[in-house]
Amino acid sequence: MASLTVENYLKAIYLIGLDDPQHNAATGAVAHALGVSAGTVTSMLKTLASTGLVTYTPYEGAQLTQAGHALALRVVRRHRLIELFLVKTLNLTWDEVHAEAEHLEHAVSDFLVNRIDQFLGFPQADPHGDPIPSADLSLPPILQRPLVECQQGEKFRLSRVLDQSPEFLRFLTESGLTLGTTGVIAANRREAGVVQIQVDGTVASIGREAAEKLLVVAD
User: Fold this and answer.
1) CA–CA dist 53, 42 (Å, integer)
2) Tens place of pLDDT per residue across the chain (219 aa)
3) Nearest residue to 149 (alpha-carbon basis) of 87, 217, 83
4) Among residues 148, 166, 174, which one has the least CA distance to residue 158?
5) In 68-190, at which residue ranges do the beta strands (DSSP E only) sit?
6) Hey, is 194 helix, strand or coil?
């Protein structure tokens, strides 16, 4: 098993690359994600490049190689299954599980993760709606779009939350917006910077910045 540091770097590069897969993960972005200095990242990226896990270009950043991508997906799989396991078995809330999974993802074997996967019924998404890689590291299809792009009258079901900070998740919980919540777009007021949704007969306004972080599917 790769070291905790290596796994953290590969996972960070993978997650950064989701936003722009055609470009390198910038050194500064990796440093911000991991809470370390840019110099520390540069040194580590050179080490990862020497082991064939990333390709590194000075001043441009890094991309995962095929081997690095596979290892990153294994870490992501562990993390997301652990999050779901903690919610389903210990009744932790979706704003509590991320930090716990960050520690546990490095301590469990692939054998145990596969048993957790089987126990949970081979789920496709974690408590935040993020897709869970299968045992062969394939990902389920993603057909979601941001709530902010929906038009008046469209019915939706909340399927994924991109901002997983505890504060934002607690805000959603207090607002009655949890995964699976269904509703209809009452209005999409770009000029006012809000999206109005109707859920269970109640109309609420969500700022466009927050609505960009909520992914939905047609209901």
Assistant:
1) 14
2) 578 999 999 999 999 998 887 789 999 999 999 999 999 999 999 999 999 999 999 988 999 999 999 999 999 999 999 999 999 999 999 999 999 999 999 999 999 999 999 999 999 999 999 999 999 999 988 889 999 999 999 999 999 999 999 999 999 999 889 999 999 999 999 888 999 999 998 999 999 999 999 999 987
3) 217
4) 148
5) 145-146, 155-161, 182-189
6) strand
Using an 8 Å Cβ cutoff, are 202 and 186 in contact? no
Residue type at position 200 = D
Check: CB of residue 211 under 8 Å from CB of residue 177: no
Contact 31, 98 (CB under 8 A): no
Based on C-alpha coordinates, what's the Rg of the chain? Answer: 19
- Each residue of 2-32: b (16+ CB within 10 Å) or e? beeebbbbbbbbbbbbeeeeeebbbbebbbe
Q: What pTM did the predictor assign? A: 0.92
Distance from C-alpha of 99 to C-alpha of 90, rounded to nearest angstrom: 15
- 217/90 Cα distance (integer angstroms): 28
Q: How far apart are CA 77 and CA 55, in angstroms?
A: 23
How many alpha carbons lie under 13 Å from residue 182 in its C-beta half-sphere? Answer: 3
